Amino acid sequence: MSRRRELCLDSLEQAAQALATSRAAVAFTGAGMSVESGIPDFRSAHGLWRTYPPDEYATMSAFSADPAKVWVMLRAMVGVLSAAEPNPGHQALAQLQRMGRLRRVITQNIDGLHRRAGSVDTIEVHGSTTGLHCPSCTLRDKRASIPTRGVPPCPRCGRAMKPPVVLFEEGLPPGAMGEAMRLADACDLMLVVGTSLAVYPVASLPDLAIRAGATIVEVNTEPGHLRREGAIELAGGAAQVLPLLIERALELAG
Ligand code: NAD
User: Fold this and answer.
1) Which domains does the chain have, with CATH numbers?
2) What is the pLDDT of residues 165-185, one digit of tens each?
3) Helix (H) and strand (E) counts for the chain?
4) Is residue 225 among the annotated active site residues?
5) 222: DSSP letter
6) Ligand 1 center to residue 14 CA distance, Å?
7) Share of the chain above pLDDT 90, in %
8) pLDDT computed for residue 44 by the predictor
9) Is 112 in the pocket of ligand 1 (CB under 6 A)?
10) Could you please report the per-residue DSSP string of 111-162?
């Protein structure tokens, strides 16, 4: 067995032991979590974000200036998200929570795949694509569906509505960040999965956990974002690594 492979197995065992003895674990996930479900992250050289660059299509100023243009991207995005299915990584996290070994999942993703995999009380810090929301008067219609064409007007103020997805330059859903910070501050282990930690303020959640003394386990195809903080790094895709890690942790926990 190569030294590299040995090191990977050592890290997996170390992370599984930490998870097996944790009393207050949380997971914090980003776009990489859903790449193996067929949803590209911001960094991949193909996919939605190449056609619709986020700085041109995913900002509040773009939506205010030209809602019809942003709705073209929103419809394409909802199409990609609704065609995706939870992967074994989402399912493994849901199983860990069912077994009482994971408090909650905090996700930056808007795809709803943690919920669909069975995770309960997931905190979606960047919103979701369920229903419609008016950024002008804050009306939220949870049951509205995405229209097939045009820009839906707000029934209260008449201005443009959008799905309750948080665009750049837009505030986070009320309460979500506070709840995520409380969880991060009270956890003893944080699984940081598939995020480049580039989008603030949510990218500061691992720092809160570290200050609270938590162990950090990073799962990423290109880990190293939390190396200075002594994170246990597991290099690989979330759909492969999480089932192995969680199966071993549950085995150790007995
Ligand atoms: P990001 O695109 O900045 O970074 C993705 C990270 O995932 C990278 O570090 C990459 O190395 C890693 N990665 C790629 N494939 C992986 C895999 N199979 N397994 C594990 N890791 C993998 O994503 P971000 O940090 O989440 O920030 C981007 C913002 O865009 C967030 O707000 C996010 O919610 C949003 N976004 C969401 C979705 C979604 O809902 N699925 C998709 C794209 C972007």
Assistant:
1) 1-39+85-126+174-254 (3.40.50.1220), 40-83+130-164 (3.30.1600.10)
2) 999 999 998 899 999 999 999
3) 10, 8
4) no
5) S
6) 25
7) 83
8) 67
9) no
10) S-HHHHHT-SS-EETTB-SSSEE-TTT--EETTPPPPSSS-PBPTTT-SB-B
